[in-house]
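Minutes, project check-in

Agenda point 3 was the complex the collaborators sent over. CS summarized: two entities, 891 residues total, and the question is how they sit relative to each other. Sequences were read into the notes so everyone works from the same version.
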Amino acid sequence: MTAPAIELKGISKAFGPVQANKDISISVQPGTIHGIIGENGAGKSTLMSILYGFYKADAGEIFIKGKKTLIPDSQAAIAAGIGMVFQHFKLVENFTVLENIILGAEDGAMLSTSLSNARRELKHLAEEYGLNVDPDAVIENLSVGHQQRVEILKALYRKAEILILDEPTGVLTPAEADQLFRILDRLRAEGKTIILITHKLREIMEYTNTVSVMRRGQMTATVKTEETSPEHLAELMVGRKVLLRVDKAPAEPGATVLDIKGLRVVDDKGVERVKGIDLAVRAGEIVGIAGVAGNGQSELLEVLGGFAEGTGTILMNGSEIPLSGHGADGQTRRAVGISHVPEDRQREGLIMEFSAWENTVFGYHHAPEIQNGLLMDNKGIFAEAEAKMERFDVRPPDPKLAAKNFSGGNQQKIVLAREIERNPDLLLIGQPTRGVDIGAIEFIHQQIVNLRDQGKAILLVSVELDEIMSLSDRIVVMFDGHITGERDPGQTNEKELGLLMAGITDTSTVAGNGNTTPPEQEVHANG
Amino acid sequence: MDKMPKWADIVLIPLISLLLAAFFSALVILAIGENPIEALNLMIDGALMRSAGWGYTLYYATNFIFTGLAVSVAFHARLFNIGGEGQAMLGGLGVALVCLYIPWPHWSLSILGASVGAALFGALWALIPAYLQAKRGSHIVITTIMFNFIAAALLNYVLVEMLRPVGAMDPASAKFPDATHLPSFQDMFSTAETPLFRGAPANVTFFLSLAACLLVWVLIWKTRLGYEIRAFGQSETAAKYAGISPVRITVIAMLISGALAGMMSVNTTMGESERLILNSTEGAGFIGIAVALMGRNHPFGVLLAAVLFGFLYQGGAELALWTSIPRELIVVIQALVILFTGALDNMVRHPLEKLFIALRRRNA
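CS then shared the predicted structure for the full assembly.
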C-alpha cells in the first residue's frame, strides 16, 4: 500500500469551552474520493479549516504523502498541494475567469506574462479533465456550476493534489451536480485525492470510496462506502435510529386561502425575478415550490411576507392584500393571518444578538397581550418563551441565551415555535431545514405536517428536492421567475423535477407514474 | 456561551483600559518634565477632594450625560450621530427663546419649558439628517458633521444680528430674567455654617440628567419602541421581515437623540451662563461620542463615563492652573482614554477572554 495522500493524527481544536474537534485521525489513499459526513456543528468545517491553515490545531499532526507537514496558513496549504473549494465561492465577481485564476498566484509584477501562462495552462487543464470554461468570461455572467469549475481550476492551477470540496452541490441543479461528479471522477482517475464534505447521503453512497462520519467533534466511524447503507450512516451521525421519511396522511384540501394572480417582482437592481405567476394554496395542504436557488422563489416569499414589493393581485381569504406602498409590510401581513418562517433565519428570522425570549415575540411585538401599559410585558413574554421552548424542545432550554448561541436546528425551532403558535391561516416557510441536523429535521417536518392537519395552508420553498418530495401535497417548480410545471409528488420523480427546474417543460421521456426512486434515496440530512 | 463573565466585560475591561491610558499619560507628562504622580494628585485634589471641585466635575458630567445618551440612543439603531454638537447649539437657541420671550413665574416651570424648547430645537436639527438618511440614503455621519458647521454659523448669525441687545459688543443674548435662574448646588446644599460648592456651576439640571438616564434605560430595554430600535440596529433585514419600518425608526431614533443632545444646553445656557453665548457647548457634543463608547451605550455606563470625563475636564483645568502642564495636554490625556477604552477595546478584550477561557478549562 502506498503512503496515504493525506493523514491526520489526533487533531484536536477547542473554541473556548467548545471542543470542535477531538482526537481526529483519518487517512485518505491517493486517487480516491473520501466523504466526510456529519450533522451541523459536528466539526467538519473546523477540521477542513485546520487542513487549509485557517485555524491552528491545539494538538495533532498532519502528514502529506507520509511526510509530516505544518500548515500555519493557506499559503502553506497550497504549497503542500491542498486545494479548497468553498461552499461560498471566493471569486472576484467582476474579474474574468483568467484574472481570478491567477489572483494571488501571479508570476511577477506585470500581469501579461501571468495571464498568457495561465491561458496555456487552463487550456491544458480543460483538455485533461473536461473542465471547459471560457477564460475571458466575467465571473458574474457565469452560471453557478461554471463558477464552481473556476474554483476547481484555481486549485488545480496551483498544483493541488488534494482537493477539498465543501458542500459542492448545495447550489447546483441536479444536472450540474452530475457534471461536477463526472469531473471529480476524471480527477480521481488521474490520481488526485478528493475530500468531499456533504450532508447528502446519496452523494456519499454514489460517488465516494470511503466515508468518515463525524459527530460532536469526534470521528465516530470510517467505513468503505460499499460496506455501508444510508440508514447506517444516518444512525452513526445522530447516534440513534432516525425516521428518514415523513409520516403523513393524504391531504384534505379545503377552501382556497391564498390566491396569487399575475405576480411580478422586480428586485433592487431592476431585474425582474418573478415574471407573472399564478398560484393558489388551499387550507389543509402543503404546496412545495421546487427550484434551484435564485429562480424567484425567495422573492415570491418576500413579497408574500411583506418585505419586498411586487405587482399583480394576491387574495388572502378572498380579500386583496397590498403589494406595495402603505400596508405592504410584515405587520399588516401578520394581521391577516400570514406567518412566515423566512429562508435565512440568521439574517431575517432572528435578531442574533437578542436573547431567545426577546426573539419569541419578534414581529409580533405589537400584539396587545404582551403589552403592559406603556411598557412591554417582559415577564409575561419570558414565561411564555420558557413554555414555548419546552414545547418545541429547544436545547438548551434557556430563554436568556442569545439566539446566536443556539445551533442552527434550535434557532429554527425558536422561529417555528413563534410562527406556528400564532396559529396562522397561512404559513410561509422557506428552507425549513437548511443547516439543521437530522434529529431536528424529523421534528420540524412533523410540526409542519401537524399544522397542515389542523387545516392550515402551507407554502413551502426548499432547494432540497427530497424535502419537497416528501413533505408536499402538490409540487410547483419554478425556473427563471416562471412556474414551469406542477406535479403530484406521487406521480413524479427527481429526474422529471430536475428537468423542470432547468426550464425544460417537455418531460415526457422521464415522466414517471409513481416513485421510481428507491426509498433510501429519499434519505437526506442537512449538515 | 459567553466568553467571559459579564462583570469582567463591564468592569474589568474599562478599568484595565483606563489604567493603560493613565500609564501612557504618565509617560507623556514625564516627557515634558513634570511629575505624573504629582499631576494626578493635583487632578484628584482639584476635581474630587473639595465640594467646589465636585461642583465643576458634575457640571461637566451633566453635559456629557446628555450628549452621551444622545449618541447611545442613536447607536442602538446603528446610527452614528456625530451631530450632538450642532444639536446642542440649537438646543441652546431653544432655551434662550423660551427664557427670553416667555414670562416665567418660577424656575421649576421655566426649566420644564426650557427643556421642551431645547429638546425641540435639538430634535429638529437632527430631523433633517435623519430624513436624508432614511429617504435618500445620505450617510448620517457626513450630514450630521456638516450640520454642526451650519449650526455654528446659524448661531453666530442669530446672536449677532438678532438676539444681541442694542449696544452690546459681544455676540451673546441678553441676560435671562431672574425667574429663570436655576438653583445651583451652592443654593441647594450650602448653609451659613458649612459653605458647599462655592462658585461651582453644577445646578439642578444634574438631576434632570439622572432622570434622563433612567428614562433612556426604560425606553431602550422596556418599551416596544426600544425593542424596535434595538432590532433595527442589529439587523435591518430582520427588522424589515418583522414589519419594522426603517424610515420610521431612523427618524424617531434621531429625534430622540437630537432632543437629548439639545437638552445639554439647559445645563450650560440656562444653568451656568444664563444667557446664550457663542460656543457654549465647548465640544461636549463630541465628548459624548467617547462617553457613549466607553459606557457601552448603556445609560448607567454613560453616567459613569460622563463623571470620569467630567473629572478629566475639571482636573485638567486644575493642572493648567497650578503647573506648567498646558491645558492642551489634558486633551492628549482624554484622547488616550478614548483611544484605549474605545478604539483599542479588543486589545484588552482578547487576552482577557483567553485568560477566562483558560481559567474555566482548568476548573472544568
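Noted in discussion: Residues 356-422 of chain A form one domain.
Follow-up: revisit at the next meeting once the mutant set is ready.
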